[in-house]
Amino acid sequence: DAGVIQSPRHEVTEMGQEVTLRCKPISGHDYLFWYRQTMMRGLELLIYFNNNVPIDDSGMPEDRFSAKMPNASFSTLKIQPSEPRDSAVYFCASRQRGGIGTGELFFGEGSRLTVL
Amino acid sequence: GESVGLHLPTLSVQEGDNSIINCAYSNSASDYFIWYKQESGKGPQFIIDIRSNMDKRQGQRVTVLLNKTVKHLSLQIAATQPGDSAVYFCAENVNNDMRFGAGTRLTVKP
């Protein structure tokens, strides 16, 4: 398996532009997570899905952020409009199933976003 | 709110020595814990996990200890190698919600 695939790896954009980050989880994994990583705040959970349904989006910073999972093999995280404070590395991760003892998350390589 | 935190932000050890990385958690409902390693430019990678009904688990060169009384988790790395240099995160699981601590940077000196 190729692992969790994220795109783009790097994105530089100007304030006010729309940004879309994409993720392909590992086939057969029921859970998908979006995290944001910054030096100041570390790894923050933004949202996670179970069987394509959003379960907890309490970590989404504000209405400018939205995430979708139209099918089991694809998810997007969208920021509109983007702001410089959104600059971070965004990670997507997937997990096979829930319950204790099964919590290993498989992370993608991340999408480094810079908003000028 | 309750969160996972780390005692030490940085740790420097000599190659061959043992390393101990600590983590404090405050959510008593956490039932499962994982240590991750993150190398520069990469996503976190699973090292070892432990359930809340255990107090110790060993892997290859790594041991995780869990003290529920004081809500403390530690990762021990035996015979630390240069390849162990990375940022280490503890994460706790509550109802399938995986939350990460701030991370500790481990530097291994040759």
Summary tags:
heterodimer, A: 116 residues, mainly beta, 4-stranded antiparallel beta sheet, B: 110 residues, 11 strands
Describe the protein:
The complex is a heterodimer of chains A (116) and B (110). Chain A has 116 residues and is mostly beta strands. Helix content of chain A is 0%, strand content 53%. Chain A has strands at 5-7, 10-13, 19-24, 31-38, 42-50, 53-56, 65-71, 74-79, 88-95, 106-107, 111-115. In chain A, strands 2, 4, 5, 6, 9, 10 and 11 form a seven-stranded mixed sheet that branches. Chain A has a four-stranded antiparallel sheet with strand order 1-3-8-7, with no helix packed on it. In chain A, β5 and β6 (53-56) form a beta hairpin. Helices cover 0% and strands 56% of the residues of chain B. Chain B has no helices and eleven strands. Chain B is globular and about 40 Å long. The model of chain B has no long low-confidence stretch (mean pLDDT 88). The A-B interface holds A 4, 31, 33, 35, 42-43, 45, 48, 50, 55-56, 91, 93, 95, 98-101, 103-110 and B 31-32, 34, 36, 41-46, 49, 51-52, 89, 91, 93, 96-103.
Strand runs of chain A, count: 11
Instruction: Give the C-alpha Rg of chain B.
Output: 13 Å
- β-strand amount of chain B: over 45%
The main sheet of chain A comes to:
7 strands, mixed
Helix content of chain B: under 10%
Secondary-structure element order of chain B, as H and E? Answer: EEEEEEEEEEE
Distance between the termini of chain A: 36 Å
Which structural class fits the helix and strand makeup of chain B? Answer: mainly beta
Query: Runs of chain B with pLDDT <50, length 5+?
Result: none
Q: Any idea what the shape of chain A is?
A: globular
- Radius of gyration of chain A, in angstroms, nearest whole number: 13 Å
Q: How many strand elements of chain B?
A: 11
What's the pLDDT, averaged over the residues of chain A?
92
Low-pLDDT runs of 5+ residues of chain A are none
Proportion of residues in β-strands of chain A: over 45%
Range of helix content of chain A: under 10%
Shape of chain B: globular
Largest sheet of chain B: 6 strands, mixed
Structural class of chain A: mainly beta
